[in-house]
Structure formats: C-alpha cells, structure tokens
Specification:
Order of helices and strands of chain A: EEEEEEEEEEE
Shape of chain A: globular
Distance between the termini of chain A: 39 Å
Shape of chain B: globular
Strand content of chain B: over 45%
Order of helices and strands of chain B: EEEEEEEEEEE
Radius of gyration of chain B: 13 Å
Number of strands of chain A: 11
Strand content of chain A: over 45%
Structural class of chain A: mainly beta
Structural class of chain B: mainly beta
Helix content of chain B: under 10%
Oligomer: heterodimer
Largest sheet of chain A: 7 strands, mixed
Distance between the termini of chain B: 36 Å
Largest interface: A-B, 21 and 26 residues
Chain lengths: 117, 109
C-alpha cells in the first residue's frame, strides 16, 4: 500500500515562509508526477501545484504563483513545497498526492498550515 | 479557467436508496473527470477516474458516466459508510491545470 507522509506544517506569521515535505514509502516517487492539494478549514479542495516526474516541468494555481515553489528530490524519495509570503488565506491542510495523467491516485494524511499573527 | 459546479450541494437519503450526484464543467473536459469521497478528518479517496473507471478496490455500487461537460456519479444502494462529501475534479488539456468542484455532502435522512 502506498504511503505518503507530509510534514513541515505549523503556525507562521503573515509574510513568513514554510517548507513542506512529503516522503513516500512502498513506492518510488521517481515513477510518479506529484501534486499538492490544500483544504482550508471547513472548505473544499483546491489544487495548488504539480511537478513532472523529472522535476523539469512545474505548474501552479494562480492563487500561489510567484509565492510557492514545488520541487522534488528523487534520490530522497521526497516532494517539497516551499511557501513564501504566506497569507491568512493560505491557512489549510496541505495534502501531497500522486498524479496519474488526469487524477490524484494516492494521498497523504495532510499537514496543517496556519498563517496568523 | 474551467469551473466545475456540483449539484445538489446537500443530498439527504436513506441507506439502501440510490444516489445521483451531478458535476457540470464550464467547458468541455473531454473525459478528464474524476470523483473523490472524503469523510471528516480524512484525506480524499479516489473513486472514479476518466469519467467512468472505478479505482482499485472501489465497490461496484459506485459508477460514473458522462463526457464533455456533464457528468454523474451514481451510488446504486447506499451503505452507511457512503455518507460523506463527494468532489469532482478536472484536468485542463494544456497546461495541465486542475480544479475541483465545491462538493456534494451526502447525509443520512
């Protein structure tokens, strides 16, 4: 069974930065495109960013473009999301997920990011 | 930007009944449409991909249909564990951008 484990969430002040990590077990991440999806408290799902298998191609939602950077280290079986210039509206549970062409197959349990002063 | 709308927002049914959930796209997504189930405090779970293909381990009572702009998730006979929130999701052709519908909450009547 695929297991994805996110970490790095926490409380940060507006304008601050955080780096999220997603480590995979039972699968080799280098075989998958990956994405981050978030969910604000009591709200629906929002796609945040995606990255190709090689890491060369990256994609972002307009709401985070220019502030967030997705990357991967296939040697460490790890996906990252560097989040800068954080805003209150970035408060959410952040999930990493494997991306198979057009859908998200396996999901982690999420890590909570709270942006507040 | 492709926008997904889901109806109804809330669906109240009893166990054993049939559930029909709708998802409409603002423009054609061909068949790049997936459905997810989410229970409180849990991550979403993939149910249906490419409009009509059941994901691994998903019971046969779940089925998806549609193409273009109109899609349906059907649960033929509701089990107690099916009461949850359901999201549809699309992928645009290029660049590969994704969006989710606002969700349908399926609650016990």
């Amino acid at each position: 069974e695929v297991q994805l484990l996110e970490s790095g969430g926490g409380l940060v002040q507006p304008g601050g930065s955080l780096r999220l990590s997603c480590v995979a077990s039972e699968i080799t991440l280098r075989n998958y495109a990956m994405s981050w999806v978030r969910q604000a408290p009591g709200k629906g799902l929002e796609w945040v960013s995606g990255i190709s298998i090689s890491g060369v191609n990256t994609y972002y939602a307009d709401s985070v473009k220019g502030r967030f950077t997705i990357s991967r280290d296939n040697s460490k079986n790890t996906l990252y999301l560097q989040m800068n210039s954080l805003r209150a509206e970035d408060t959410a549970v952040y999930y990493c997920a494997t991306l198979l062409m057009s859908y998200f197959d396996s999901w982690g349990q999420g890590t909570l990011v709270i942006v507040s002063s | 930007e492709i926008v997904l709308t889901q109806s109804p927002a809330i669906l109240s049914l009893s166990p054993g009944e049939r559930a029909t959930l709708s998802c409409r796209a603002s423009q054609s997504v061909i068949n790049y449409l997936a459905w997810y189930q989410q229970k409180p405090g849990q991550a979403p779970r993939l149910l249906i991909y490419d409009a009509s293909n059941r994901a691994t381990g998903i019971p046969a009572r779940f089925s998806g249909s549609g193409s273009g702009t109109d899609f349906t998730l059907t649960i033929t006979s509701l089990e107690p564990e099916d009461f949850a929130t359901y999201y549809c999701q699309q992928r645009s052709s290029w660049p590969p951008l994704f969006s989710f519908g606002p969700g349908t909450k399926l609650e016990i009547k």
